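Onboarding guide, step 5: your first structure request.
Type a short instruction followed by the sequence, for example:

Predict the 3D structure of this protein.
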Amino acid sequence: MAKQFKRDFVDQDSLDAPDMQALRKMAPPADMPFNITKIGHVVLNVKDVEQSTEFYTQVLGFRVSDTYPESMMPGRMVFLRFNNDHHGVALVGGSERVVDNTEMHHMAFQVETLDEVFKSRDYLEKNNVHIEFSGRRRAGCQVAVEFRDPDGHFLEIYCLLDQVGPDEEACPAENWCPVASLEDALDNAPPGQDMTLLDPTLRR
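The system replies with structure tokens like these:
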């Protein structure tokens, strides 16, 4: 069984250890000839392509752009979009293995407002989706709701991820303010993070 960790725990001593500092100092070469600007898309192997397509369209609001029949992709394939890109997620059916997230820990989807994060929690629960975590994460300080799709892939809906320029330093660990509920995230914000709900009734 995997070891469980508290999501709101910050181990400052270990963060300051030499091995962690060495990792933080790694940087691209000055003469890097290209600049990746975003993750383009993720393709997931799923057991039941109909069930998974229903989840991503009905529960997460994705739209289908295209599909491949069995003759073009064993298991069939569905391309799903959530912005103007043709696809951000694609599903390939016919998987026979149990997902254990050894290849991918989780996949996160951004929304533009804090209210939408709160609304996503309510909507997921209304659709009988178990919430595994809600609150503020540590590094990055995003406010998030975490859950799983029908195949067990670990997913996140978030907003307010810290923005860090190429030559800027990320928010120091002592300012992260990790908490394990959305309401606590409202009450304990890191410096500069606006936690104002446009609709205060979303708070529980």
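Each response can be followed by summary notes, for example: The mean pLDDT is 89.
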